[in-house]
Each structure stands twice: as structure tokens, then as C-alpha cells.
Sequence to fold (233 residues):
Amino acid sequence: QSVLTQPPSVSGAPGQRVTISCTGSSSNIGAGYDVHWYQQLPGTAPKLLIYGNSNRPSGVPDRFSGSKSGTSASLAITGLQAEDEADYYCQSYDSSLSYVFGTGTKVTVL
Amino acid sequence: EVQLVESGGGLVQPGRSLRLSCAASGFTFDDYAMHWVRQAPGKGLEWVSGISWNSGSIGYADSVKGRFTISRDNAKNSLYLQMNSLRAEDTALYYCAKDIGPHIAVADPFDYWGQGTLVTVSS
Fold:
């Protein structure tokens, strides 16, 4: 059962900016644990997109950015492209000694 | 190139057991913690279990605690998941994932994932 809440879907036209929220609680994001983001293209394994709240692994375009504040985090995609159509998941750690993922958000490029 | 290749999935009856394996290559396996993450058909990601670099620390999700056992063999560059007393709700694609660090329970991300092995629990 996911303890991090994300909107089920977001959409935007090519070139637009979309944001995905990830809402946790005082036992995970609010406790100071880092938030990471993964992109899952259809039929493939998840890929690390953002780590440590706002850092991009080598090879990830700077169109993707992350932020964290309080008990929430956000992923922003600027200059939306057709290839960005995928599912996106946030991840953190919970004081109950468990890694937790968000509920997932499907991004649709109109 | 980092590669993680899972195997051992299949169709199994409720209450039976299955052992998953993950063969790792392209990095120094015994420098990193490893994890199992599953994804039920059409659903989101769920962390199942993690093990530190030297097997000194192990963690499980509440949903599998007491039924699943994670282990690793650093000499063979391999990760395992022994799954006992399987239930229909364990049906999922099971991914092997590499941690960016050697320890678990430190909120590090998973930087490489395998393609997964499908486990179906059904009579």
C-alpha cells in the first residue's frame, strides 16, 4: 500500500510545462528523507530520473527537475516532448523501516 | 555496462514456493546493497526487500515478512528471493534493483533495474 500520494494523471501539449506532486507525511518526506523519481516507459523497467530531491543522473535531460518542501515533493517537466509519455513514480523512505513509492502518475502528451 | 537479469518466475499454486534469482554484471557487486521491487499487473511499484552489501542488514515489506527471504552470494554476483506460502496477491513482475550505496535503510535511490521476472500465483 503506497503511502506517497500522486495525481493519477497529468497531461500537456508538446512544449508545455507539467508538474507532478508527491505528498507524504511526517514519517517519510517530512522526516527529512530524500525523494527520488523514476520514469517507466510502457513495457519497460523503471529508470532513475531524479535523486536526492533535485539531482539528475548523467544523461537525463535538464527538462526534468525536482524539488522538495515539507512533506511534499514535485517533479517538473518543461518543454514536454512526445517521448516523455510514461508513468512517473516518486520514492522515499519511511520511519517504519520501509522504502515507499508513490501511487504513480501517467503523463500524456496531447 | 551494468546488467541485472532476473529468472525463476512462473506459474505456481497458492501456498507453494518459488525462488527468484538475479544475476549481476558490469559493476562490483559486493560494493552495493540490492533490492527486490514488484509490480502487480497494471499497478504501481512496491518495495519487497533489501539487503546490504555484506548481508549484515536485511529489510522486508510488512506484506511479505515471515514468508519471503532475501539473500545474496557475492562470489557468484547473485541476488535471491525465496518466496514461501505464496498468495494470489503476490502475483507481480519482480524486479531486481541496485542501490547506489552499500547500506539499506538510508533512503538511497535505485540506479539500475533488471527487466523483471513474472510470478503468477493461481490454482
